[in-house]
Specification:
Layout: E1 4-17, E2 21-28, E3 32-38, E4 56-63, E5 69-78, H1 81-84, H2 87-103, H3 111-125, H4 132-146, E6 170-172, E7 177-179, E8 191-192, H5 195-206, H6 209-212, H7 219-232
Parallel strand pairs: 3-5
Antiparallel strand pairs: 1-2, 1-4, 2-3, 4-5, 6-7, 6-8
Helix pairs in contact: 2-4, 3-4, 4-7, 5-7
Bound molecules: zinc ion (ZN).
Zinc ion (ZN) binds near residues 156, 158, 159 and 161.
Length: about 240
């Protein structure tokens, strides 16, 4: 008898596999990252194909196999039509999935990670969202923090004193936190972190995606924030 199980999952990649099949990557609520073969999806009459595109929340029956596990059945719970009909949103969700698939390994199940990914898609899909790009940085920074890389944003990494609002603070992305004016020296790679940017970084970690829809930030601040978060991704490079 075939062994099967049911789960809820978010599809994060779909690529052609063999002549008529696809290989999908998904992150499930209780089993973490999955790699599954979906049979017959390249055939015109495939009922499965529409439910297993990236950025789909699906209920799923998985059949365990010797070499591969297979999609036995998939049904769309939320297919996030606003994302799939908007080129910018497709690009942003694609960037998130790319990074996510790279750093999340098979068998690392974590409900908080699942919820974060779902919150990100809900938010990006929302009509209210003002800044699509910001949702990408929101997600990346919160994900790194969930995985155990919460940066120090309140006290100086070196002298431990409280970070003051003086626009003289720097962010040491290799070390994962802020460095006060007194402790900055040339041997450590740092980026400028204005007081407003530090406030945004704290806000990202302390608030949820619902809050994101209310945020409007100026271009210079978005740029500074993106430099810091892009550079901070380095903290995960050797994992
Ligand atoms: Zn210091």
């Amino acid at each position: 008898m075939e062994e099967t199980y049911n789960t809820i999952a978010i599809v994060t990649n779909n690529e052609p596999f063999r002549e008529h099949d696809s290989k999908i990557t998904a992150y499930s609520m209780d089993q973490g990252k999955l790699e599954l073969v979906a049979r017959g999806t390249k055939k015109i009459k495939s009922k499965l194909a529409g439910h297993i595109e990236p950025a789909s929340l699906i209920s799923l029956m998985v059949i365990r196999g010797k070499q591969y596990d297979y999609v036995g059945f998939a049904d769309g719970q939320n297919l996030y039509a606003n994302i799939k009909n908007n080129y910018e949103k497709i690009l942003i969700s694609g960037q998130v999935f790319n990074y996510f698939n790279k750093i999340i390994k098979i068998g690392e199940g974590d409900l908080e990670v699942f919820d974060l990914l779902k919150d990100f898609l809900d938010s990006l899909n929302s009509e209210k969202i003002k800044n699509n790009n910001l949702s990408y940085y929101f997600f990346i920074f919160k994900l790194l923090s969930l995985l155990g890389y919460t940066p120090e944003l309140h006290n100086c990494l070196v002298c431990k004193s409280k970070i003051l609002a003086n626009n003289k603070t720097k962010f040491a992305f290799n070390q994962g936190g802020l460095i006060c004016k007194k402790c900055q020296n040339r041997s450590v790679e740092v980026l400028k972190a204005s007081d407003n940017c530090i406030k945004m970084l704290r806000l990202i970690l302390e608030s949820d995606f619902k809050h994101l829809n209310k945020i409007k930030i100026e271009d210079w601040l978005a740029k500074e924030l993106s430099f810091i978060i892009e550079s901070y991704k380095i903290i995960y490079r050797n994992q």
